[in-house]
Amino acid sequence: MKSLHVALIAIAFGLMTSCNTENPQETAQAAPETEATPAAGQSAVADDQSQQNVVQVAAGSQDHTTLVAAVKAAGLVDALTNAGPFTVFAPTNAAFEALPAGTVDGLLKPESRSDLRNILQYHVYVGVIPAERFDDDMTLGQVNGGRVKLGLEGDQPTVNGAKIIASIPASNGIIHVIDQVLLPE
User: Region Disordered: which residues (predicted)?
Assistant: First the structure.
Protein backbone atom coordinates (compact mmCIF):
# COMPACT_ATOMS: atom_id res chain seq x y z
CA MET A 1 0.00 0.00 0.00
CA LYS A 2 2.85 2.34 0.86
CA SER A 3 4.47 1.77 -2.50
CA LEU A 4 1.14 2.60 -4.23
CA HIS A 5 1.04 6.00 -2.47
CA VAL A 6 4.63 6.73 -3.45
CA ALA A 7 3.87 5.77 -7.06
CA LEU A 8 0.78 8.02 -7.18
CA ILE A 9 2.73 10.95 -5.76
CA ALA A 10 5.51 10.41 -8.32
CA ILE A 11 2.98 10.29 -11.18
CA ALA A 12 1.23 13.44 -9.95
CA PHE A 13 4.56 15.25 -9.66
CA GLY A 14 5.54 14.15 -13.14
CA LEU A 15 2.25 15.39 -14.60
CA MET A 16 2.54 18.76 -12.87
CA THR A 17 6.09 19.39 -14.06
CA SER A 18 5.41 18.23 -17.61
CA CYS A 19 2.37 20.54 -17.98
CA ASN A 20 4.54 23.64 -17.71
CA THR A 21 6.04 23.64 -21.18
CA GLU A 22 6.42 27.40 -21.58
CA ASN A 23 9.85 28.88 -21.80
CA PRO A 24 10.16 31.46 -18.99
CA GLN A 25 12.02 33.84 -21.31
CA GLU A 26 9.25 33.69 -23.91
CA THR A 27 6.63 34.36 -21.24
CA ALA A 28 8.51 37.37 -19.95
CA GLN A 29 8.87 38.77 -23.46
CA ALA A 30 5.21 38.20 -24.30
CA ALA A 31 3.94 40.09 -21.25
CA PRO A 32 2.75 43.55 -22.27
CA GLU A 33 4.44 46.50 -20.66
CA THR A 34 2.21 48.64 -18.49
CA GLU A 35 2.89 51.93 -16.82
CA ALA A 36 2.88 51.96 -13.05
CA THR A 37 -0.03 54.00 -11.77
CA PRO A 38 -0.24 55.12 -8.20
CA ALA A 39 -2.74 53.08 -6.23
CA ALA A 40 -5.78 54.94 -4.98
CA GLY A 41 -6.29 55.03 -1.25
CA GLN A 42 -9.26 54.25 0.94
CA SER A 43 -11.11 57.31 -0.39
CA ALA A 44 -11.42 55.60 -3.80
CA VAL A 45 -13.54 52.76 -2.39
CA ALA A 46 -17.12 53.13 -3.63
CA ASP A 47 -19.73 52.22 -1.02
CA ASP A 48 -23.19 53.72 -1.26
CA GLN A 49 -24.73 51.46 1.37
CA SER A 50 -22.67 51.97 4.53
CA GLN A 51 -22.84 54.92 6.87
CA GLN A 52 -20.67 57.79 5.59
CA ASN A 53 -17.18 58.40 6.98
CA VAL A 54 -16.05 61.75 8.38
CA VAL A 55 -14.83 63.04 5.00
CA GLN A 56 -18.05 62.07 3.23
CA VAL A 57 -20.16 63.72 5.94
CA ALA A 58 -18.13 66.94 5.69
CA ALA A 59 -18.22 66.85 1.87
CA GLY A 60 -22.02 66.69 2.02
CA SER A 61 -22.25 69.82 4.17
CA GLN A 62 -22.60 73.25 2.57
CA ASP A 63 -21.14 74.73 5.79
CA HIS A 64 -17.84 72.85 5.40
CA THR A 65 -16.71 73.54 1.82
CA THR A 66 -13.60 75.41 3.03
CA LEU A 67 -12.66 72.57 5.38
CA VAL A 68 -13.11 69.97 2.63
CA ALA A 69 -10.98 72.04 0.22
CA ALA A 70 -8.29 72.31 2.91
CA VAL A 71 -8.35 68.55 3.63
CA LYS A 72 -7.92 67.88 -0.10
CA ALA A 73 -5.11 70.46 -0.46
CA ALA A 74 -3.31 68.95 2.54
CA GLY A 75 -3.55 65.42 1.10
CA LEU A 76 -5.44 64.10 4.13
CA VAL A 77 -8.53 62.63 2.44
CA ASP A 78 -7.26 59.03 2.46
CA ALA A 79 -6.05 59.27 6.06
CA LEU A 80 -9.44 60.49 7.26
CA THR A 81 -11.41 57.89 5.29
CA ASN A 82 -9.57 55.04 7.01
CA ALA A 83 -11.19 53.04 9.79
CA GLY A 84 -10.27 55.46 12.57
CA PRO A 85 -11.92 55.98 14.94
CA PHE A 86 -11.56 59.76 14.80
CA THR A 87 -12.97 62.74 16.62
CA VAL A 88 -12.86 65.61 14.15
CA PHE A 89 -13.40 69.19 15.26
CA ALA A 90 -14.81 70.69 12.05
CA PRO A 91 -14.77 74.49 11.72
CA THR A 92 -17.57 75.98 9.62
CA ASN A 93 -16.98 78.21 6.60
CA ALA A 94 -17.84 81.17 8.84
CA ALA A 95 -15.07 80.14 11.25
CA PHE A 96 -12.54 80.18 8.40
CA GLU A 97 -13.89 83.55 7.20
CA ALA A 98 -13.21 84.99 10.68
CA LEU A 99 -9.46 84.41 10.22
CA PRO A 100 -7.38 87.40 9.07
CA ALA A 101 -7.83 88.23 5.37
CA GLY A 102 -5.69 86.06 3.09
CA THR A 103 -4.97 83.39 5.71
CA VAL A 104 -7.00 80.61 4.07
CA ASP A 105 -5.79 81.46 0.55
CA GLY A 106 -2.19 81.42 1.81
CA LEU A 107 -2.62 78.06 3.53
CA LEU A 108 -4.14 76.47 0.42
CA LYS A 109 -0.99 77.19 -1.62
CA PRO A 110 1.26 74.16 -2.27
CA GLU A 111 4.21 75.76 -0.50
CA SER A 112 2.12 76.00 2.72
CA ARG A 113 1.07 72.34 2.71
CA SER A 114 3.01 71.40 5.87
CA ASP A 115 1.49 74.33 7.81
CA LEU A 116 -1.99 73.41 6.57
CA ARG A 117 -1.48 69.76 7.55
CA ASN A 118 -0.34 70.82 11.01
CA ILE A 119 -3.44 72.96 11.53
CA LEU A 120 -5.83 70.31 10.21
CA GLN A 121 -4.20 67.54 12.24
CA TYR A 122 -4.68 69.74 15.31
CA HIS A 123 -8.42 69.29 14.67
CA VAL A 124 -8.24 65.47 14.84
CA TYR A 125 -8.09 63.11 17.81
CA VAL A 126 -7.65 59.36 17.32
CA GLY A 127 -10.57 57.90 19.25
CA VAL A 128 -14.19 58.87 19.73
CA ILE A 129 -15.12 61.42 22.37
CA PRO A 130 -18.84 62.22 22.33
CA ALA A 131 -19.82 65.70 23.56
CA GLU A 132 -21.59 64.11 26.55
CA ARG A 133 -18.19 63.01 27.86
CA PHE A 134 -16.62 66.49 27.74
CA ASP A 135 -15.54 67.67 31.15
CA ASP A 136 -13.82 70.82 32.37
CA ASP A 137 -10.04 70.69 32.13
CA MET A 138 -10.05 67.49 30.07
CA THR A 139 -7.27 67.47 27.44
CA LEU A 140 -6.75 65.41 24.31
CA GLY A 141 -3.57 64.66 22.39
CA GLN A 142 -4.17 65.56 18.77
CA VAL A 143 -2.74 63.92 15.64
CA ASN A 144 -0.20 66.75 15.16
CA GLY A 145 1.19 66.17 18.67
CA GLY A 146 -0.51 69.19 20.21
CA ARG A 147 -3.10 69.15 22.95
CA VAL A 148 -6.59 70.67 23.06
CA LYS A 149 -8.59 71.49 26.16
CA LEU A 150 -12.18 70.32 26.38
CA GLY A 151 -14.60 72.10 28.64
CA LEU A 152 -18.13 73.14 29.39
CA GLU A 153 -19.62 76.63 29.38
CA GLY A 154 -22.78 75.84 31.25
CA ASP A 155 -24.15 72.90 29.27
CA GLN A 156 -22.30 73.96 26.09
CA PRO A 157 -19.30 71.69 25.28
CA THR A 158 -16.20 73.53 24.04
CA VAL A 159 -12.76 72.78 22.65
CA ASN A 160 -10.10 75.45 23.29
CA GLY A 161 -13.01 77.84 23.83
CA ALA A 162 -14.67 77.08 20.47
CA LYS A 163 -18.30 76.06 20.90
CA ILE A 164 -19.54 72.69 19.69
CA ILE A 165 -22.52 73.62 17.50
CA ALA A 166 -23.48 70.06 16.55
CA SER A 167 -22.16 66.51 16.76
CA ILE A 168 -22.57 64.11 13.86
CA PRO A 169 -21.73 60.40 14.06
CA ALA A 170 -19.88 58.83 11.13
CA SER A 171 -18.81 55.30 10.26
CA ASN A 172 -15.26 55.99 11.42
CA GLY A 173 -15.83 58.38 14.29
CA ILE A 174 -17.62 61.58 15.18
CA ILE A 175 -17.59 65.13 13.87
CA HIS A 176 -18.01 68.02 16.28
CA VAL A 177 -18.94 71.13 14.30
CA ILE A 178 -17.18 74.14 15.86
CA ASP A 179 -17.50 77.90 15.48
CA GLN A 180 -13.76 78.68 15.39
CA VAL A 181 -10.61 77.40 13.71
CA LEU A 182 -8.26 75.84 16.24
CA LEU A 183 -4.70 77.09 15.86
CA PRO A 184 -1.82 75.10 17.33
CA GLU A 185 0.59 76.94 19.60
Answer: 24-48
pTM to 2 decimal places: 0.72
| Contact residues for 148 (Cβ-Cβ < 8 A; gap 6+) | 89, 122, 125, 139, 140, 142, 159, 160, 182
How many Cβ atoms from other residues are within 10 Å of residue 152's Cβ? 15
**Domains of the chain, first to last:** 52-178 (2.30.180.10)
Q: Other CB atoms closer than 10 Å to residue 144's CB: what's the count?
A: 15
Cis peptide before 85 (omega within 30 of 0): yes
Q: Does the pLDDT at position 20 exceed 50?
A: no
CA–CA dist 181, 148 (Å, integer): 12
| Nearest alpha-carbon partner for 174 in 160, 155, 159 | 159
